[in-house]
Amino acid sequence: MHAQNWMRATSRYFQLLAPLIALGGYLYLGEVWIFGVLALMPLATLFAAPDRDTEAHRPRQEDALTGFLTRDGFENQLHRSFAHPQEGRRATAFFIMEINDFPDIRLRHGEAAADAILRQSALRIQGAMRQTDIIARVGEARIAICLTPAPALDDEACLQLAARLQTALEEPVALPVASILPGWTFGLHRAKIAPDAADAALDRAVQALEDALRAGPSALRLFTPELGRRVTRHREIARDAGHALDRDQIEAWFQPQISCDTGKVSGVEALARWRHPHLGLVPPYDFLPLLQKYGQSERLADRMLHLALTALHKWDDAGLCVPCVGVNFAAEELANTALPDKIAWALDRFDLTPDRLAVEILETVATGPNDGIVTTNINRLAEMGCHIDLDDFGTGHTSMSAMRNLAVSRVKIDRSFVSRVDLDGDQQRMVAALLTMCEQLDLETVAEGVETAGEHTMLAQLGCTHVQGFGLARPMPFADTADWIAAHRGTLTAPPTIGPSPP
After folding, report:
1. How far apart are CA 485 and CA 482, in angstroms?
2. Overall average pLDDT of the 193-204 stretch
3. Are the C-beta atoms of 88 and 138 separated by less than 8 Å?
4. DSSP codes joined into one string, 313-359
């Protein structure tokens, strides 16, 4: 390789000096010298040609669609900029931004529309930024910007610039068929320029974007130490979530449901909790989406069913009256044609009748892409004798016909309808209408998220069948349930005797 480089360099010098060599030789040796030099020119050109294999394998430095730098080109420029900071210009800022739900846009509108949005967005970014700012496309719909270093750059200026850029990017994009309003989520980090600091500064901007993406569409986050600790925790959760089931770290916690007529425990709901060895108890909204992403929803449902039926069997052995346990099933599990047989086998294994299990389904599952298989499975479970609970009712778009086809036996009213129902007249009328509809359809009701005695009382007066929420009992591990059930039973008083007093 070194010999090839030496020959290539020598041949290039020969090409440059060939005219002088030819003229000098002609003066001393005549025309024969000129012909000799001309004969050597093709050979020199051959050795001077670039190594095409090297060129072919060299990473592209410019994105073909947007005209921005690629990730490699971006990182190369950053390292050069940070390696030689200019005196007095030691502050910069990183913007990492991403189009919200870009895979859905591509799926819904097609490749051409998605590419058009990216091209139009690139033009808007170029129009808003300076030529000296470093801009790159670092993902399918992710753009990174490093601002030109400046002597004075504070957080407020960065936030204002990002907000203006976000506003420009979220203007409608005209397409041949329709206009699309793209949403953009931003992560920001203001950094001091110093040798070997580029990678760390860029990662902090990415951390800010990750936190913004969890916050919701079109969010904007500036990196702070607290945000960094939060993101580090989420990254550890994401790294370990795929192994949580294998390591038996997923537990079932139980939240009691209370009858509004008798005050007794009418059931419990089994809720998944992850006891991480280093992070402690991880809430479900942090790990359930990850398990779904890793394709482990069915394994989670199997484990929760096993833990719930195990708890029910132990309560029976202890003489504690828990009529049924509710287990949530994801869409993937409900679309499994083997689900009814699997549940029947599990109930038989624990010597439990089907009416001891409530199968909880989300309202959106009823209208999903596999609704035919889901409907068949749910109806088979209902025929077996299992209760079918429609969860989070009122937040989706389930039709009345879908409710009838699904053989639902109980509706769980979402917390958004329950909150402050004792204080808000409009809320009371809405809940009363829902309860009346369910009564006409011969459906029981469970009000979720009851937090105050006032809400509990009002729901009972309106005709709700069961209540559940922090105001009654928080979810608890199995080890705490027996004491809670016994303590609750002790608070119940016998109903008053109606009729003449005994002599």
Report:
1. 5
2. 86
3. no
4. HHHHHTT-----EEEE--HHHHT-TTHHHHHHHHHHHTT--GGGEEE
Residue 110 to residue 103: CA distance in whole angstroms: 10
411 within 8 A of 390, measured Cβ to Cβ: yes
Axis crossing angle, helix 478-491 with helix 297-317, rounded to the nearest 10: 50
The sign of the CA dihedral 19, 20, 21, 25 is positive
Dihedral angle, C-alpha 388, 394, 398, 403, nearest 10 °: 40
Measured in whole angstroms, how far is the alpha carbon of residue 160 from the centre of its chain?
Answer: 27
Global confidence as pTM:
0.70
Looking only at the bridges linking them, the beta strands covering 410-413 and 466-467 are unpaired
Element (H, E) at 275: strand 265-276
Decide which of 151 and 73 is more confident.
73
Name the one residue in this structure whose structure tokens are 């957080």. Answer: 155
Answer yes or no: is pLDDT of 255 > 80. yes
Alpha carbons 66 and 136: distance in angstroms, whole number: 9
pLDDT above 70: residue 211: yes
- Is residue 233 within 8 A of residue 241, CB to CB? The reply is no
Distance CA 418, CA 448 (A): 7
Work out the burial of residue 419: count CB atoms within 10 Å of its CB; fewer than 13 is exposed, 13-18 middle, 19 or more buried. middle
The predicted pLDDT at position 60 comes to 57
What tokens appear for 342 in the block?
Answer: 């699997």
Q: Look at residue 53 in the predicted model and tell me its pLDDT.
A: 45
Contact status, residue 297 vs residue 330, Cβ threshold 8 Å: yes
Contact indicator for 257, 270 with CB cutoff of 8 Å: no
Provide the residue type at 61 as one letter: Q
What band does 274 get if pLDDT is binned at 50, 70 and 90? Answer: very high
> Higher confidence at residue 325 or residue 437?
325
Pair of tokens at residue 221: 């986050």
Do 186 and 207 touch, CB atoms closer than 8 A? Answer: no
Rank 15-24, 39-48, 150-159 by mean pLDDT and report only the highest.
150-159
Q: How many CB atoms lie within 10 A of CB 356?
A: 21
Helix axes of 155-169 and 111-128: crossing angle, nearest 10 degrees: 140
